[in-house]
Amino acid sequence: ETGVTQTPRHLVMGMTNKKSLKCEQHLGHNAMYWYKQSAKKPLELMFVYSLEERVENNSVPSRFSPECPNSSHLFLHLHTLQPEDSALYLCASSQEAGGGETQYFGPGTRLLVL
Amino acid sequence: GQQLNQSPQSMFIQEGEDVSMNCTSSSIFNTWLWYKQDPGEGPVLLIALYKAGELTSNGRLTAQFGITRKDSFLNISASIPSDVGIYFCAGSTGNNRKLIWGLGTSLAVNP
Questions:
Q1: How far apart are CA A79 and CA A112, in angstroms?
Q2: Which of A43, A74, A104, A109 to probe the B interface (max B CBs under 10 A)?
Q3: How close B5 comes to chain A (CA, Å)?
Q4: A102 reaches B (C-beta below 8 A)
Q5: At a CB cut-off of 8 Å and minimum separation 6, what does B89 contact?
Q6: φ, ψ for residue A56 (rounded to 5)?
Q7: By C-alpha distance, which of A2, A3, A7 is closest to A108?
């Protein structure tokens, strides 16, 4: 297993459901990120973790709850989402959490909220 | 907030043609990154630039870090069908942990 992996690749959920997205990086990096990608918008940074500590929370609604148990794993817990939350959720990692660091992305989870 | 202007928004070209796209910023950047995203996949890094004036190649791809540090260019020579996808520029001022992203250039190649 190499690079950054994400599961599931596709997810359909109702507004009352609770689900979790999982990301794992096999690159030995210290920083991990969650992004939201919607059509016609730039990638939106949601959260940044450095050595399992959240260092950035980009004004994300509380219905999105990240968890980083170790430097290789990152979760995004979802509950009571809205239809406008439907998007591609991308996980990325980098050696350190600097803005100039090259980020490596997973394939994303395509989320549809009904 | 900071924005990147990426152009063109989309391109339709014939196989074998050269392609050029660019990004401009209202701020000075100290890092420029170019990514490609295939349908259903995450962005994949193509070229990273760290110095004003830097010109870097990756196969048929060449990218340059503008002298003003407010722009960057990506060129693809002799395009092939697998070049199809969305190309994103991203940059960093170095002042925080964020990358600023362009909206992407969608490339279609007609065989």
A1: 13
A2: A43
A3: 10
A4: yes
A5: B4, B6, B22, B23, B32, B33, B34, B35, B72, B74, B101, B102
A6: -150, 130
A7: A7
pLDDT of residue A86: 96
What number of CA atoms fall less than 13 Å from residue A72's CA on the CB side?
6
- The residue of B49, B50, B97 whose CB has the most chain A CBs within 10 angstroms, and thus the best one to mutate to test that interface, is B97
Q: What is the pLDDT of residues B47-99, one digit of tens each?
A: 999 999 999 999 999 999 999 999 999 999 999 999 999 999 999 887 666 78
Q: What per-residue confidence (pLDDT) applies to B2?
A: 63
Residues A79, B95: Cα–Cα separation, whole Å: 33
CA–CA separation, A56 vs A45, rounded Å? 9
| Tokens found for residue A54 | 């959240």
pLDDT at A102: 86
Question: Is the Cβ–Cβ distance between B103 and A41 less than 8 Å?
Answer: yes
Amino acid at B79: S
Which one is predicted more confidently, B86 or A1? B86
Whether the predicted pLDDT of A1 surpasses 60:
no
Cβ contact B40–A4 (<8 Å): no
Residue of B nearest to A37 (CA): B42
pLDDT number for residue B1? 55
Tokens for A28?
């030995």
Q: Is A73 on the interface with B (CB under 8 A)?
A: no
